[in-house]
Amino acid sequence: LQLQDGNGQGSLVTFSIVVEALTRPLSMDLEMHPVAEGQEATFQLKMYPGRNESMPSDLAGVDNLPSWATIKKSTNESSMWILTAKPDHLVVRHPARSASFAITLHITDGLRSYDPVVTLVVTDVDQAPTIESVVINDGIIAHIGIESRSVMMLTDKDGDFVSLSIDPFALLPSWIKIQRLYFNTWTLIVLPDALSVPYPLFAQDYVVPIVYKDNMGRMQSLVSVTVTVVSTSWPSNYARVATVHET
User: Fold this and answer.
1) pLDDT tens series, the chain, 247 aa
2) Which string of DSSP letters, residue by residue, matches the chain?
């Protein structure tokens, strides 16, 4: 302010005006919330009101909430919500080891609105693939000169690309092969030759060790399928049971 007397003498006076709000902004702790694939975790989302306030907060809406997560009002406190997360094994896409999800809450107390962002961090839990095939239970009975094909399917809970092959250290004849049919499906091909059953035997067993893994490098236990090759001189009253071994 400019102050001046009747003689023209004056001075400049400066002062400050402090305006104190009757309410303070809503607030919430926004730390990261970790959870592992295949597990369930629960988090408390606590809303802190401004000074001299008793007005309860209300959740007006939620954006970007994953299908495997829920938010519900606490039954114990009016300004608290319970965030529950239970991600499956397809949430983290390999080769990533984790995935973050930002969830926006729209909160109001009737006077103000507040839009905090809560972050869920999902860590990867890699699952080993599993194999399915009729020959895993029954084995294979093959005949000299006749081709036999058996389908082998792999399943991976993470949705990974998987590979299957005969153990490279196995000493097997060239007429035992594995070929990829499509994606996670293979065919075990057996075409015994005339030398596959040494004389004077009627049958000969070949143990085929099969190794399979996903592209994350997780190795499943070795599966061995026994291929029983029947000679052309196999007697009609001679019984033979093919076996399969899994270790």
Assistant:
1) 666 666 666 676 676 776 555 455 566 666 778 999 999 999 988 877 655 455 556 788 899 999 999 999 888 887 788 999 999 988 998 888 999 999 998 887 777 788 889 999 999 988 888 888 777 778 899 999 999 999 998 888 888 888 889 998 899 999 999 999 988 899 999 999 989 998 888 899 999 999 888 877 665 667 889 999 998 765 544 444 444 444 4
2) -EEE-TTS-EEE-----PPPPSS---EE----EEEETT--EEEEEEEE--TT--PPPEEEEEES--TTEEEEE-SS-TTEEEEEE---TTSSPTT-SEEEEEEEEEEE-SS-EE--EEEEEEEP-----EEE-HHHHH-EEEETT--EEEEEEEE-TT---EEEEE-TT----TTEEEEEEETTEEEEEE---TTSS-TT-SEEEEEEEEEEEETT-PBPPPEEEEEEEEPTT--TT------EEE-
